[in-house]
Amino acid sequence: MRLRVDHTTHYHFDGHVAYALQQLRLTPKERPGQQLIHDWTIAVEGGEHQLHYTDHQGNGVDLVAVHGGARELILRCTGDIELVTWDGVIGAHRGVMPLWTFLRPTPLTRAGRGVRALTAGLGRDFASDIERAHALSVLILDKLPYRIGVTDAETTAEQALAGEGGVCQDHSHIFIAAMRHLGHPARYVSGYLMMNDRTQQDATHAWAEAYFDHIGWIGFDVSNGHSPDQRYIRVATGLDYQGAAPVRGMRYGGAQENLVVQLQVQQ
């Protein structure tokens, strides 16, 4: 399957920006089943591309400096991605990061009382650790229904679990925290998902991956209740959202920003 992505991130500033630098993780990862990337481009208006590099997680990173005095910045990513069926299995661990790194808690994924109680509620009657992980995914969505606007990028797994709902970022953080507590390396994935019911979207997607002996990394999309398939495009991975965020940045000056995202993913 070939998917077409058209992703625009538009920043409006209410004043002139003295200086700003944006860090983009918007170039899809090449992997088995996602190797052919046709004409993937990142166009910039209101700024200048500084450099491209590969970070310690194997993510492609672009640095964009905003023009001094700018009132807006537009980032547009377009391209075609060739995908094959892979049923969520990424396979063997690769890269420079040792597996034990993915057992390390972060401020967003630290397992506290809520996460420990969640894992204890799973019980022990499972044929395999993978079956237990799928049961965990179901339990998280049951405890924390999908709801927009009640969490933000700084919400931790424990805070989200104690709330009234959350989004894919929260579901992924809770799953990661729980899997690490159970002794499995786990990581956060940001990317794109082709929806079955619509082309237009207002955000990228996120899910989690956990590592199992003799099989390797397997993906779990808690928010949608299944493992990623050929509708999913893996873009970046990290220990949590902070390490895989599509766009992060710093800005000098008092200007406030308004962010508008337009996204199309279609076959």
Describe, in plain words, how this protein is organized in 3D.
A 5-stranded antiparallel beta sheet has the order 3-6-1-14-9, with no helix packed on it. The model has no long low-confidence stretch (mean pLDDT 92). The chain folds into 2 domains: 2-83 and 247-266, Immunoglobulin-like; 89-244, C8orf32 fold, CATH 3.10.620.30. The longest helix is centred in the middle third of the chain and has 15 residues, at 129-143. 39% of the residues are buried. It is built from 5 helices and 14 strands. Helix 1 (113-120) crosses helix 4 (168-181) and helix 2 (129-143) packs across helix 4. It has helices at 113-120, 129-143, 157-161, 168-181, 241-244; strands spanning 2-17, 19-27, 36-45, 47-54, 60-66, 70-82, 89-91, 186-193, 200-201, 205-212, 216-220, 232-238, 247-252, 257-266.
Features:
C8orf32 fold; 2 domains; single chain; alpha+beta; 5 helices; 17% helix; Immunoglobulin-like; globular; Papain-like_cys_pep_sf; 267 residues; Transglutaminase
Secondary-structure map:
Blueprint (H helix, E strand, L loop, with lengths): L1 E16 L1 E9 L8 E10 L1 E8 L5 E7 L3 E13 L6 E3 L21 H8 L8 H15 L13 H5 L6 H14 L4 E8 L6 E2 L3 E8 L3 E5 L11 E7 L2 H4 L2 E6 L4 E10 L1
Antiparallel strand pairs: 1-6, 1-14, 2-5, 2-13, 3-6, 4-5, 7-11, 8-10, 8-12, 9-14, 10-11
Helix pairs in contact: 1-4, 2-4
